[in-house]
Automatic annotation (TrEMBL):
Name of this chain's protein: Uncharacterized protein
Alphabetical keyword list: Cell membrane, Glycoprotein, GPI-anchor, Heparan sulfate, Lipoprotein, Membrane, Proteoglycan, Signal
Domain of life of the source: Eukaryota
Residue spans of biased composition, Acidic residues class: 209-223
Membrane topology, from the record: Lipid-anchor; GPI-anchor
PANTHER family for this protein: GLYPICAN, GLYPICAN-4
Similarity-based family: Belongs to the glypican family.
InterPro entries per UniProt: Glypican (IPR001863)
Length: 246
């Protein structure tokens, strides 16, 4: 199985680097850069500012008059009104932190970030462990009645390592290590580029992306697509050395 998935195993390094960059960015969202914690109380802050203005209107007016001068009184239809009559009574109330809906898990962004981090950590080393994941289970587990490549017996050969370079010593699967899968190589380059974007964003740099129209007007050689997919590791069972090694 390692021979069959040799090219895919080479994705592992860039894949893990990409996940690490995602995790570092997610850590930022849980810290002082959590925009939800900044935006949530902004309406309350505005309300408190208006209430403070109402309660200290005389002092504020005096400071304004000192800095800008006394306003000229209007002669037409001028009536004297009290502060009480012009106040927005009942609309703005003192803010109490207890009034905000809270949960044990925190805000919605906190929950989403925590869930994303768990999934990202679970996806680490996905490609290098893919042969073991495929081979795990009772139906594929090793045994004396398993085909080992030459006879019906237990696999006794040394299990080779992951990756295309290690297949030069694979006794069971003929893999040409001089001809790497170009689709996989293209995906490795995409992962590397996305990782650099994430690192730049983590450092506070603006990232610009090319639109579909801009991409179609440029070079069209080496065209390849990449699709996101959800991955999860296997559970339980013992992997067969015979199948993994092949």
């Amino acid at each position: 199985m390692r021979g069959c998935l040799a090219n895919q195993a080479d994705l592992d390094t860039e894949w893990n680097n990409f996940l690490d960059a995602m995790l570092n960015l997610a850590d930022r969202l849980e810290g002082p850069f959590n925009f939800e914690s900044v935006m949530d109380p902004i309406d309350v802050k505005i309300s408190e500012a208006i209430m403070n203005m109402q309660e200290n209107s005389m002092q504020v007016s005096q400071k304004v008059f000192q800095g800008c001068g006394q306003p000229k009184p209007s002669m037409a239809f001028r009536t004297k009104r009290s502060i009480k009559e012009t106040a927005f009574t009942g609309r703005f109330r003192p803010y109490s932190p207890d009034a905000r809906p809270t949960t044990a898990a925190g805000t919605s962004l906190d929950r989403l970030t925590g869930d994303v981090k768990k999934r990202l950590k679970h996806a680490k080393k996905f490609w290098s462990t893919l042969p073991e994941t495929v081979c795990a289970g009772e139906r594929i587990a090793p045994g004396d009645e398993c085909w080992n490549g030459t006879a019906k017996s237990r696999y006794e050969s040394v299990v080779i390592g992951n990756g295309l370079a290690n297949q030069v010593s694979n006794p069971d699967v003929d893999v040409d290590i001089t001809k790497p899968d170009m689709v996989i190589r293209s995906q490795m380059a995409v992962l590397k580029e996305m990782t650099s974007w994430l690192k730049a964003a983590h450092s506070g740099n603006d990232i610009s992306f090319e639109t579909d129209e801009e991409a179609s007007s440029g070079d069209e050689e080496g065209e390849s697509g990449s699709q996101g997919r959800a991955v999860r590791g296997g559970r339980g069972g013992r992997a067969s050395p015979a199948i993994i090694g092949n």
